[in-house]
Amino acid sequence: MAAPVLSYEDLGVVQGSGWLFRHLDIHIGQRDRLALIGRNGAGKTTLLKLIAGKLDSDEGRRTIVPGTRVILLEQEPALTGFATLRDYALSAPDAPLPHEVEAIADQLGIDLDRSSDTASGGERRRAAICRALAQEPDVLLLDEPTNHLDLAAIEWLEEWLARFTGAFVVISHDRAFLTRLTRQTLWLDRGGVRRAEIGYGGFEAWTEQVYAEEERNAQRLDAKLKLEEHWLQRGVTARRRRNQGRLAKLMEMRAARKAMVGPQGTAALATATDDARSKTVIDAKGVTKRFGDRTIIKDFTLRVQRGDRIGIVGANGAGKSTLLKLLTGEIQPDEGTIVQAKTLNGVVIDQQRKLMAPEKRVRDVLADGGDWIDVLGTKKHVQGYLKEFLFDPSIAEAKIGSLSGGERSRLLLAREFARASNLLVLDEPTNDLDMETLDLLQEVISDYDGTVLLVSHDRDFLDRTVTITLGLDGSGKVDVVVGGYDDWAKRRAPKAEPKRPSAPKADAPQAAAAPPKKSKLSYKDQRDFDMLPGEIEKLEAAIARDEAALADPDLFAKNPTRFDTLMKAIETTREKKDAAEMRWLELAEMADNLG
């Protein structure tokens, strides 16, 4: 790592009656792209505020290169006292120039004259991004920057950060965002911090390696890990392996569902058999919904089957919430019909988390103050059920107000998943969740017997979870795609226009007859088209394996030759992977053109 521009040495912070963390050493280089990873409640947001100089530590020394501008994008922007979003965006200590704020606002698509009091979560988040980026930071600290943003804004922010010449540290639950942008990882774990010179793409392989080494050390010492560490670590690693199996099952479900769907975009069943009809839970035909002169949903048809996992994606204001309300019967269409099964019994988990009153105890939310909770007809002790959702059982007496945002979200999920239902409606369920809870949520949804309607901007989570994606572009059209976010993104990606041959000149010799148009890929092209996805997966696995090996902080000192070999191997493998992906994309386009 290059000489740091900002460091915190021997950092310690007291929380309540004990240390939140202690003896942390943090160093941020001039061009670092750091993912800050840790469980909800581990202190990630607190650590980010300490690095920013917004909080004072109980121990440790913060040093910074003179002139370095450190800017923090907080998870919850404080807009109190500002009449408009513009007032807030221009109020920073390092006051940004108005034209710079306006330029970013235009690209993000936000009206800065909007009243702060009535601004939505997405508008408040965009205003905070304008404020932070326009200050031209040298070190940018980002706390859940993608929360409340739609897909277009997330992609814009990714592109901006990819061009950014300074350093950034980011807390995010968005795996795709972290994988694309980060090159180093800070892992806040059990009161300590580990650093690895790998991006989030190699994080899971690295943590598996760390846990395995800890368990081997414990066995050599003939001692067991502490109980809370044991169930957490073994539970997390086992869950990841189970979820790999669930991904295979999801692919099978998508293949089966694809066979049931008619022509692309219509979502009508190819054969409306009696069996299919008996499994239908929501039947929408020719649905149109308008608000004033604007058509939000136009001529939408979909038969939702029992067990479908449906993801709804699109820009803010495109009509995702409207479509969700139509499907659940909360509002009625202006044209067409929507029929819900009479036996439909839904559970709605919304963005507002209205049930989580700060003065209530965890026990009050889960079990109305008692010791036992009815989980789908089975009595479970509150403390045992808390463990299933990755909580320390002793948290049962804690006040909701003392929990982090992610812990509150996880507790709400625990409460709602205990209720008997056959329809689960999730509106941005991944906001504020840590990676381990996302794995748990994926597991619970995969095992859910009923139907799932899911609104989310988390691309990776959609790819891991849903069988059908409904994509809205704001024009009223709803694309129905069997698969996840990536499948929808490929559908909406503009195809390259074929070049039109120029007309021959009058005095030019007659061109030779054009060769007959190919009707299929050649043997070699077809072989590459079939085999390259597997090769790309192997190359990705090799990169993750080498990055995990490179994460050993003592490797360079112990074996510099091995360190150099790994660095070169990763670079070579990445080049091979890029070439393989380009070749596959070319072949995919050829296959599309051939029909």
How would you characterize this protein structure?
- 41% of the residues lie in helices and 22% in strands.
- The chain has 595 residues and is α/β, with parallel strands linked by helices.
- The strands form 5 sheets. The chain has a 6-stranded mixed sheet, sandwiched between helices. It has a 6-stranded mixed sheet with strand order 14-17-18-12-19-20, with helices on both faces. A 3-stranded antiparallel sheet has the order 2-1-4, with no helix packed on it.
- Helix 3 crosses helix 4, helix 8 crosses helix 14 and helix 17 packs antiparallel against helix 19.
- The chain is globular, with a radius of gyration of 26 Å.
What's a concise summary of this model?
By secondary structure, the chain is an alpha/beta fold. Helix content is 41%, strand content 22%.
Write the layout of secondary structure elements.
Elements lengths: L3 E12 L2 E12 L3 E6 L5 H9 L6 E6 L5 E4 L11 H5 L8 H11 L12 H13 L5 E5 L7 H13 L3 E5 L3 H7 L2 E6 L2 E5 L6 H18 L6 H34 L13 H5 L1 E12 L2 E12 L3 E6 L5 H9 L6 E6 L5 E4 L12 H6 L4 E4 L2 E4 H7 L16 H13 L5 E5 L7 H13 L3 E5 L3 H7 L2 E5 L5 E5 L2 H8 L30 H28 L4 H4 L1 H35 L1
Parallel strand pairs: 3-7, 3-8, 5-6, 6-7, 12-18, 12-19, 14-17, 17-18
Antiparallel strand pairs: 1-2, 1-4, 8-9, 10-11, 10-13, 15-16, 19-20
Helix pairs in contact: 3-4, 7-17, 8-14, 17-19
